[in-house]
Amino acid sequence: MLDGTSKPLLKVNNLKMHFPIYRGILKKQVGAVKAVDGISFDIMQGETLGLVGESGCGKSTAGRCVLRLYEVTDGNIELDGEDIADLTGPQLRAKRPEMQMIFQDPQASLNPRMTVGSIISEPLYEHRKMTKPERRARVDELMDAVGLARRFADRYPHEFSGGQRQRIGIARALALNPKFIVCDEPIAALDVSIQAQVVNLLEDLQEKLGLTYLFISHDLSMVRHLADRVAVMYLGKLVELGDSETLYTAPQHPYTQALLSAVPHPDPAKAGNIDRVILQGDVPSPANPPKGCNFCTRCPVATEICHKDEPEWRQIGEGHFAACHLIK
Amino acid sequence: MTDTAAQEQNVQSKNRSLWGDVWVQFRSHKGAMLGMVVFGIILFGVTAGPYLWTIDPQYLDIRDKNQGISWKHPLGTDQLGRDLLAQLIHGGRVSVAVGLAAMLLSLVLGTFIGVLAGYFKRIDGPLMRLTDLFLALPILPLLLVIIMLFRDTLRNAFGPETGIFLLIVFIIGMTSWMQTARIVRGDVLALKEREFILAANSIGTPARRVILRHILPNIMSPIMVSATLGVATAIITESALSFLGLGFPSDFPTWGRLLFDGTTFIQQSPSRVIWPGLAISLTVLSVNFIGDGLRDALDPRIRGR
């Protein structure tokens, strides 16, 4: 899948999303929450890029920015060669069918007052000129594709289990044959047995329909299983990006090392032997990030330069990028 | 899961329509059905009543004044010998019409302003300050001024009864939408942050359809509650206006008017207060129950339970 000739479907360059903070009677802007602060990555056609990091590091915001659910502060987002970062109104709407999203909480992402059939056909209603029977036929097709019985189309979301609801969300995302899907922690709200079902469904669909995923998750072992390449995020910035295998076997950035050492080991007898890197302290506020490297306040190996200069995002190996002063 | 799915597919799938489901659930709500029957009787009484009970409510029969219950006057007569049943029937026409029309106006206005303020952040401030402004207005002096200014113009344009009807509906509607607007705005603000609104945005649904498809159906409960309470308030406000001599002319019976006229004679013939009061209470109560049932029936999570 990852030959050198395949062309990137999505190119994100220096993406920034700053949410302004207003204070006082006159609503003066006193600062900004730098939720996403200059990240760059490419996603190849048909590839899955995993995006991992701890809570509040800006993973979801990054995913939503890529889909232009927010007005991005700065940067470029090229989807299929066209920059969508500054599109508005009808032009942006015309691009919507190519990119879709699967949400974290399947309960909250489905309108409780709509039947499953109308939820799945909403994108069709908005973007395709279809007659009612045509829409119905497409809904049936989609429900087959995600493994839901067709007769459920007249039911309401609350009548389904979590895994089934997530399938409804997936069917809605697939309705317009998108090229690119952002999966925003699609399995975080499901229990483990259902997680496997949903992940397998996502893999099958990718194979059948040639989809490209940006898979946002904090479940590191699931990302390892699913993703071709993995990007690690910390406090609004990417710290490391590389092949799934390379990154998991030989993590370079101290934060990635700490994150990976926290993955529980399946064999309890060996679990005690792992050298866990325990990070001290809390994540600094994204409204007031530390000077120098964002990670310097918690880094176990930080030196003087880390507190002074911001590390550069550079290539450290074949398709392997990181931002750290200490990596040679 | 696949097993159950296969089994389910064997079962003959029956086609469910939304309004069919709503009706089934509505019928299972006993209070709502009772309310509907009572409200139906009231509506039938005030529309068909004048053809069945043909006594003119304005006919004076001074020898029969202050009568109790009798075959000639089933609900008795007032101090001028006018038949109370006939007055109740004619007064009900106006009261029910004013109640429903004013409620509808205030509901539409309140929902419109509430949804706009909640959904569009830019106009939230101005619209809510407007709402505060209306809440702060002293209602009675305002009514006095409006009625003084417009009563004669409207009378000339639409005739005395329609003119004053329009004026009263307009006044009550304009001075009672604020509560609805505030409640609706609060609910829209909470709803706007839900993920399904985000999902609609990611599909590219334009704002007006997000509002119609996702927001309005989900704020049905508070709208229904304020609607049913609004009918009661409107009927009572109308009677207060009539009492102050600002509403309908004094020879034109409405329930509120009958009630206030009756208070003077409460010692002599308590039935003159009881009947109009009962009519108002029954209308308000039945509308409340209907609203309650409708709210339950429109919520798919409660439906079918």
N- to C-terminal separation of chain A? 30 Å
Which series of helices and strands of chain B comes N to C? HHHHHHHHHHHHH
- The proportion of residues forming helix of chain A, as a percent range, comes to 25-40%
**Major sheet details of chain B:** none
Q: Radius of gyration of chain B, Cα only, in angstroms?
A: 24 Å
Number of strands of chain A: 12
- The shape of chain B, in one word, is globular
Could you give the order of the helices and strands of chain A?
A: EEEHEEHEHHHEHEHEEHHHHEE
Structural class of chain B: mainly alpha
Give the biggest beta sheet of chain A. Answer: 8 strands, mixed
> Could you list the spans of chain A in which at least 5 consecutive residues all have pLDDT below 50?
none
Portion of residues within helices of chain B: over 70%
* Number of helices, where a helix is a run of at least 4 consecutive DSSP H or I residues of chain A: 11
Please state the average pLDDT score of chain A.
86
Distance between the termini of chain B: 23 Å
Question: Count the helices of chain B. How many?
Answer: 13
Query: Segments of chain B where pLDDT lies below 50 for 5+ residues?
Result: 1-14
Query: How would the global form of chain A be characterised?
Result: globular
Average of per-residue pLDDT values of chain B: 80
Kindly estimate the percentage of residues of chain B that lie in beta strands according to DSSP.
Answer: under 5%
